Fold this sequence. Notes:
Elements: H1 3-12, H2 26-36, E1 48-54, H3 56-71, H4 79-83, E2 97-103, H5 108-127, E3 131-134, H6 139-142, H7 145-151, E4 158-166
Antiparallel strand pairs: 1-2, 2-4, 3-4
Helix pairs in contact: 2-5
Amino acid sequence: MQSLEVMNAIYSRRAIRSYTDHPIENAELLRLIDAAIQAPSYMNRQEWAFAIIQGKSRLEAYSDQAKAYYLTQPGSASAHALSLLDREVNIFHGAPSLVVICSTSPTQQAAEDCCLVAENFMLAAFARGWGTCPIGFARPWLTLAETKAQLGISAELTPVFAVIVGQAAESSASQGRKPPAVIWV
């Protein structure tokens, strides 16, 4: 891959919040995961695992469960998060697939490595024509023991990063970025 292509992907990839009904084949998700795990890993430990949930209707039902969970947690959600609790809002935005990147170790470094994997996953998906969106709102619900059991995620795993993936039904323009705080030392 030429550096121009990498830079184009970095500057062009956007969070997609509207998806077609087109499903993603398991083999394609495995290709994206293979690209994802090329990310750096502390001491090459590779302490990650992937839970893949397929199906728009399943994700819609899980969206309702996650929103219901927030309603039982007073004071835990921001004003923006509370707006997502509207019955009509699907926190998974109608995507056909959800990939939950889990840490196999309780260390902070393992969680950070999972975030590196997530960025590779989203860039690889973009390069292959898929849309993605990180879904941080789902993380507290995903870490519940009963949710993990329902999804078949081992109790030893810690969900770190959830990302939806599918064929985009929209294109999203850049919102731009604020200038970064840079501290020269």
